[in-house]
Specification:
The structure holds two protein chains of two kinds. Chain A has a single domain, classed as Response regulator (Rossmann fold). Chain A contains five helices and five strands. In chain A, helix 2 runs parallel beside helix 3. Chain A is globular, with a radius of gyration of 13 Å. The relative contact order of chain A is 0.16. Chain B has 18 helices and 18 strands. The longest helix of chain B has about 100 residues. Chain B is an alpha/beta fold. Among the domains of chain B are: about 180 residues, Beta-Lactamase; about 170 residues, Histidine kinase-like ATPase, C-terminal domain (Heat Shock Protein 90, 2-Layer Sandwich), CATH 3.30.565.10; about 130 residues, Response regulator (Rossmann fold, 3-Layer(aba) Sandwich). In chain B, the strands form four sheets. Chain B has a six-stranded mixed β-sheet. Chain B has a five-stranded antiparallel β-sheet with strand order 2-1-5-4-3. In chain B, strands 14-13-15-16-17 form a five-stranded parallel β-sheet, with helices on both faces. Chains A and B meet through helix 1, helix 4, strand 5 and helix 5 of A and helix 6, helix 7 and helix 13 of B.
């Protein structure tokens, strides 16, 4: 089963999203801030990362940049979850190296489609 | 000195004096001449009388040839001073006797021709001849010669008197004329002085004094009138000048005042802008804060819904759906507020792309089915044959149509909602017409229809819900794309909203330079090898390459991938693909450089290049010659439509250049679709696809 790392500081959203992903059959590891997210990404090598952007300690852009500059983690697709939904956010996400982005509130069907696509692409390559 | 340049005084004096002197001299001379002529005549008579007397007295002596007696008679003439010589000639003409006062010369022989006249003037003398007769017998001739002393003395005296008289009378005339000339010269000189005074001191109040009522008097009158006029004008000019100065001062004050006002306004503007920015920021933050808990509400309710259905506990499903629906409604309201704040902050940008209109219409119709069904409405879609693709911000077009359609659904009960799409090739506009048979909008309500926070009636908010932002946002979106929206309605008779959008929306800063599509094989260099359905994907990101090739292969294309610009160029030259998709941000050799190289190579320039990037710089892409511009994440349908378009454009035998094979079948059936209401109920607003 593919493992998904969910980096999200809001407890309710983290709980809700991880439960829904688990219901879809994914193994979910959750991190509540950027640093923990970075550590877990390095140690657990998840198949995909859902990255909230406004995080305490280290924000989502920084974590993404770190992971994408690391040879052992740069292949992991990262989907940024932004709440601002500003044009600049989208550009920032790609600039930082995110592979895709989605806006909050999460439309779960849309998000899970994206996740599936990435995992499928990964499997094919 | 020339007479003409003399002063008028001198001229007048001279004229008077000369005139009077000339008259005097002339009259005196004529008198003198007359007198001298008369006097001479008198002298001649006198001399002839003398000659007669002497002749008589000497006749006896002549008879008797008594020379001494004759000489004695002649000598008696001594008393007459002016007679200088007397001679008696015999009949033979020879001298008989003579007398001479001072041995004056006299002719020895009687001069001829003299006797007929009796006298003559000869050599400055008066000579008189007289016949001497006795008893009728001619005895000889008497000759008297006078030096006319009396006459010349008289003439000299007269001349002297005349000179003295002329001198005296001339002096008198000079005196008189020098006195009288003032009559004329004084007023003229006075006038001259006045004029000098005026011209030297610019003193227009000076007036010349009039002395007499003659021409000079009239001249002075005229001069004074002229002066008064000048003075009047001068006064007027001066006051105008003063007024001008005052006005200028006032104007300067006004300018200063305005400048101050302007500065104040500028400050106020800055303050207002600051406040507006603060408001926008507040709204953005607020909606973010609101979304986070909403995220949980919607998420949990969806999850519970799924769980409840799976575990067969359907009693709560209905309520969970209500929570979801309310949450999504709340979300759409927040999104509206956020949209509006973005528009107001000027942060609402346009993401232009080419897209097929028909699928969009179908999508909207499908999405709106539940909303239509809620009020038992029927949706009718009509798309005119000439409607094909347009270039605009698809998200905003979708939202515009969605807002209008969902409003129509909301305010119509058991009616028909119609969407007509028509393209006007003349003005390059595409027209969307949304009509309903609902409650309509009164004329008064129409006035504020497109303004924020103004619903047609406050009671409407209570009955139908909504923030009143939908139409305002629609309006703003239409404006952003340089389109036009209008409404036509009457209370109780339904409403018709008409939106006109350019089929080719351009960004404000975008130049209207778009590369023409390659129409067919003829425009590409002769002999070049073209694989009609090869797509070259140039992207440094492996996942993008994979996704794209997977998708494009599925759509029936042969896909070539290149992970960098150089490889891409090599493959392009080698394979001459139908279409190239090009990423911009790549290491070493970025997409712009690749695009430039492609467009500068005549064998490759015709190949349409679709830029697929996260860099939002469409104007640059189009300037460099890109055919289309897609911003990541790539909308696959959009990509499919584009690639398909180029495939059709390449195929010379195809007579349907604007439709795609994969879509045309569906299109025919959807041209005139009437979608029946279904029982599925969703709130309309939750179905808007938002892409921020």
């Amino acid at each position: 089963m593919p493992t998904i790392l969910l980096v999200e500081d809001n407890e309710m959203n983290r709980d809700m999203l991880s439960r829904r992903l688990q219901r879809k059959g994914y193994t979910v590891i959750a991190a509540h801030d950027g640093e923990q997210g970075h550590l877990l990404a390095c140690s657990k090598s998840p198949d995909l990362i859902l990255m909230d952007i406004s995080l305490p300690m280290m924000n989502g852009w920084e974590v993404t940049r770190l992971l994408k500059s690391n040879a052992s983690t740069k292949h992991i697709p990262i989907i940024a979850l932004t709440a601002h939904a500003m044009v600049t956010d989208r550009e920032k996400a790609f600039e930082a190296g995110c592979d895709d982005y989605d806006t909050k509130p999460i439309e779960f069907t849309r998000l899970s489609e994206k996740i599936e696509n990435f995992l499928l692409a990964k499997k094919l390559s | 000195m020339n007479f003409h340049d003399l002063s008028i005084k001198r001229k007048l004096t001279l004229i008077t004096m000369l005139t009077s002197s000339a008259a005097l001299v002339l009259s005196s001379l004529s008198f003198l001449i007359y007198d001298l002529v008369a006097f001479r005549h008198l002298l001649i008579q006198d001399l002839r009388t003398q000659a007669e007397i002497i002749g008589y007295n000497s006749a006896g002596a002549m008879e008797f040839k008594d020379v001494p007696a004759a000489t004695a008679t002649l000598t008696a003439l001594t008393a007459k001073e002016d007679i200088v010589a007397a001679v008696l000639y015999g009949v033979d003409g020879k001298e008989f006797a003579h007398y001479s006062r001072a041995n004056d010369i006299f002719p020895k022989v009687l001069p001829p021709l003299s006797q007929e006249q009796g006298y003559r003037f000869y050599g400055g003398y008066l000579q008189v001849f007289h016949d001497v007769t006795l008893n009728g017998e001619h005895l000889g001739t008497l000759f008297l010669q006078s030096d006319m002393r009396q006459w010349s003395v008289r003439a000299k005296r007269y001349g002297g008197i005349l000179c003295i008289f002329v001198l005296i009378s001339g002096s008198f005339a000079l005196f008189v004329s020098s006195k009288l000339q003032r009559l004329i010269s004084r007023p003229i000189l006075h006038l001259e002085d006045s004029m000098r005074e005026v011209s030297a001191n610019k003193n227009y109040s000076v007036r010349a004094t009039k002395s007499y009522g003659d021409e000079i008097g009239r001249l002075i009158d005229g001069f004074n009138t002229m002066l008064s006029e000048i003075q009047h004008r001068d006064g007027a000019l001066r006051s105008a000048n003063d007024e001008l100065k005052t006005r200028t001062l006032e104007l300067e004050k006004e300018i200063l005042h305005r400048r101050q006002t302007q500065e104040e306004l500028l400050t106020a503007k800055h303050t207002a802008e600051e406040a507006s920015r603060a408001k926008s920021t507040f709204l953005a933050n607020m909606s973010h804060e609101l979304r986070t808990p909403l995220n949980a509400i919607i998420g949990y309710s969806e999850m519970l819904d799924e769980e409840a259905r799976e575990s067969g506990r359907s009693e709560n499903v209905e309520d969970l759906r209500k929570i979801q629906s309310a949450g999504k409604h709340l979300l759409s309201l927040i999104n509206d507020v956020l949209d509006l704040s973005k528009i107001e902050a000027g942060k609402m940008g346009l993401h232009l792309e080419d897209f097929d209109v028909l699928p969009l219409i179908d999508e909207i119709a499908t999405t709106l089915q539940p909303a239509a069904a809620k009020n038992s409405n029927e949706i009718k879609i009509r798309v005119s044959e000439n409607v094909a693709t347009m270039r605009a911000d698809i998200t905003k077009v979708r939202q515009i149509l969605f807002n209008l359609m969902s409003n129509a659904c909301k305010f119509t009960d058991h009616g028909t909602i119609a969407l007509d799409v028509d393209q006007n090739d003349r003005d390059g506009n595409i027209q969307f017409r949304v009509s309903d048979t609902g409650i309509g909008i009164s004329e008064k309500q129409q006035q504020n229809l497109f303004f924020e926070f103004s619903q047609a009636d406050a009671s409407i908010a209570r009955k139908y819900g909504g923030t009143g932002l939908g139409l305002a946002i629609t309006h703003r979106f239409v404006q952003l794309m340089r389109g036009h929206i209008s409404v036509q309605s009457e209370t109780g008779k339904g409403s018709i909203f008409t939106v006109k959008l350019p089929t080719q929306v351009v960004l404000d800063s975008t130049k209207l330079v778009r590369p023409a599509l390659a129409n067919d094989g003829e425009t590409s260099p002769a002999g070049s090898k073209i694989y009609q359905d090869t797509v070259l994907v140039i992207d440094d990101d492996a996942s993008v390459r994979d996704l794209m090739s997977r998708f494009l292969s599925k759509s029936g294309f042969r896909v070539l991938v290149a992970s960098n610009g150089e490889e891409g160029l090599r493959l392009a030259k080698q394979e001459k693909p139908l279409v190239i998709t090009l990423d911009v941000v790549m290491p070493d050799f970025d997409g712009w450089s690749v695009l430039k190289k492609l467009k500068s190579d005549p064998t490759l320039a015709e190949i349409p290049v679709i830029i697929v990037t996260i860099v939002d710089n469409e104007p640059m892409g189009l300037d460099l010659g890109a055919a289309s511009y897609l911003v990541k994440p790539v909308d696959r349908d959009r990509l499919a439509v584009l690639v398909e378009k180029y495939r059709m454009a390449r195929s010379p035998s195809d007579d349907r250049p604007h439709s795609t094979p994969s879509l045309s079948g569906a299109r025919k059936s959807k041209r005139q679709t009437e979608l029946k209401s279904t029982g599925d109920v969703h709130h309309a607003d939750d179905l808007v696809g938002r892409r921020q």
